[in-house]
């Protein structure tokens, strides 16, 4: 049935063209509809184009819907796919794929969603890109998410990038909330976290880096809170750097609370806090200075090893 318009061709059984011009519902593909607009073409069954210009639904995409916009295309093997609006958006091999709006966005896997923006591509099944531009989710990144931002990339299974610029997760079950040029890399499933900052890197599993710039975690179960150019080496599992600048942990179970230029020097279970310190003893705390105040003046009731101060001798003792 053709309701009006000009140069329209409804040659398939049970198909409908409401108006506009230059529309085609191809033969051998039945129960289609084109409501309005111009230059649309439907080559599948039970599919609809509502309006716009030069939109296309190709073969193998039954039950598809294209709302409007311009030069949008629902490609092969995209049954039940939907493009709402925009220009040059597409779905391909994307059963139940969805593009909401924007320019040159693509849903390229089953149940993959791109909400809007431009040049975004969701290639992982059940993946989601909200908006932004030049964001991408790889084919192996099933069930992954990018909220927004620019040039963010997810390549690992069930991973998350909230936003920001040029953030990359190569491993599964990883999260980057935001920031710029942060990266979670390595092999397998990282299960690691970067909160924000810039140029931070995790190349280990079950590790975390909250913020800062140029920090690096290469050991498992390790973490850096913030700061700049802090490093946890590959052998330093279960370690911690709180903050500061250019601190380095290389042995397991050690911690640098803060400061600058500190290094545990391969001493396990060591603690450092200060400036330009080098670890000399395992299971020991290193610092430039200690200031103790309000120390007990009697050993009475103190546990073994506690410090007390004798004001008559101006000396500090260890409780027996």
Task: Compose a concise summary of this entry.
This protein has 320 residues and is mainly beta. It has strands spanning 9-10, 16-17, 24-25, 33-34, 41-42, 48-49, 56-57, 65-66, 73-74, 82-83, 90-91, 98-99, 106-107, 113-114, 121-122, 128-129, 136-137, 145-146, 153-154, 160-161, 168-169, 175-176, 183-184, 193-194, 201-202, 208-209, 216-217, 223-224, 231-232, 240-241, 248-249, 255-260, 271-275, 285-287, 307-310, 315-318.
Fold topology:
Elements: E1 9-10, E2 16-17, E3 24-25, E4 33-34, E5 41-42, E6 48-49, E7 56-57, E8 65-66, E9 73-74, E10 82-83, E11 90-91, E12 98-99, E13 106-107, E14 113-114, E15 121-122, E16 128-129, E17 136-137, E18 145-146, E19 153-154, E20 160-161, E21 168-169, E22 175-176, E23 183-184, E24 193-194, E25 201-202, E26 208-209, E27 216-217, E28 223-224, E29 231-232, E30 240-241, E31 248-249, E32 255-260, E33 271-275, E34 285-287, E35 307-310, E36 315-318
Parallel strand pairs: 1-3, 2-4, 3-5, 4-6, 5-7, 6-8, 7-9, 8-10, 9-11, 10-12, 11-13, 12-14, 13-15, 14-16, 15-17, 16-18, 17-19, 18-20, 19-21, 20-22, 21-23, 22-24, 23-25, 24-26, 25-27, 26-28, 27-29, 28-30, 29-31, 30-32, 32-33, 33-34
Antiparallel strand pairs: 35-36
